[in-house]
Structure formats: C-alpha cells, structure tokens
Amino acid sequence: MNWVRNWRTKQISVALIMGLFIIGSIPAESMAYMAGSGNLAGASTRAADMDKIQRVLESKLVAQKLQQAGLSMPEVKSRMEKLSDQELHSFAKQVDTLYPGGDLGVIIAIRVIAILVVVFLKIQNKKIIIQ
Q1: Comparing C-alpha atoms, which of 72, 76, 70 is closest to residue 88?
Q2: Which end of the chain, N or C, is less surrounded by CB atoms within 10 Å?
Q3: How far is 46 from 49, CA to CA, in rounded Å?
Q4: Does pTM surpass 0.85?
C-alpha cells in the first residue's frame, strides 16, 4: 500500500511540474494575442492614453506625491494637454510597467506553490513544525 501511495504521489508531482513548466514557458507578451483589443494596428488613441494616465493620477499615492512636489491636479492636466500624441503614448506605455503593490502574477505564483507544498505534505502524511 505504501508503494502505491509513493507511486501516485510521484505521478501527481511530475504532472504538476510539467504543467507548470508548460505554462511558465509561454511568454507573457504572447498572451495578449489571445484576447483581441479591437485596435489591430497596435496604435493607441490619444483618448485611451489620457484615460489610462488619468486613472493612475487619481490614485491617492500619486496625488500625494504630486502635491509634495508642488503640483496641483489642474497644473498636471494642463501639462498633459500640451504633450504630443507620441509623448503621451510613450508615457502611457511607461504607466503600464508600474506595479505599486508588486507584480500580481508573482504573488499568485508564490501562493500556488505554497498551496501545492502543503497539499504534497498532507498526501505524504508529513507535518510542518515551526519552533
């Protein structure tokens, strides 16, 4: 009976490792091709870029930092209006790279790994003792 449990545990482990390897090998940029954006040329409109930047500027943390720098929201908006389309698009792309709370994918991956470790230890009737 013990060899059956060990054999089953090894099979499950190998299947999960292979699944995670396959999912991890897919580049994150290619996942964008799965869901169409409606904008086939890849060019962003000025209104979409303005909306994206506006959402970031409305967060409390960013608003506080701007006030500490001596800028008010009307000043920031007037400066944004003066930007060219290319400058605005470049800024909106840089906003996409910001992760104020860390990268969500990394956080989820760490939690999934921790859950898998606990499940494997439960299957093998092992206990974690922290002293």
Answers
A1: 76
A2: C
A3: 5
A4: no
Please give the Cα distance from 23 to 27 (Å, whole number): 9
At 73-114, the pLDDT tens digits run: 888 888 888 888 888 888 888 776 665 555 566 677 788 888
Question: What 3-state DSSP class applies to 7?
Answer: helix
3-state class percentages of the chain: helix first, strand second, coil last, to nearest 5: 70, 0, 30
Three-state secondary structure along 40-81? Answer: CCCCCCHHHHHHHHHHHHCCHHHHHHHHHCCCCHHHHHHHHH
Q: How far apart are CA 92 and CA 80, in angstroms?
A: 11
The pLDDT tens digits for 25-67 are 777 665 555 554 555 444 558 888 888 888 877 777 777 887 8
Largest Cα–Cα distance of the chain, in whole Å?
A: 74
Burial class (CB in 10 A: 0-12, 13-18, 19+), 49: buried
Sign of CA dihedral 105, 106, 112, 116: positive
What is the rounded CA–CA span in Å between residue 46 and residue 71?
23
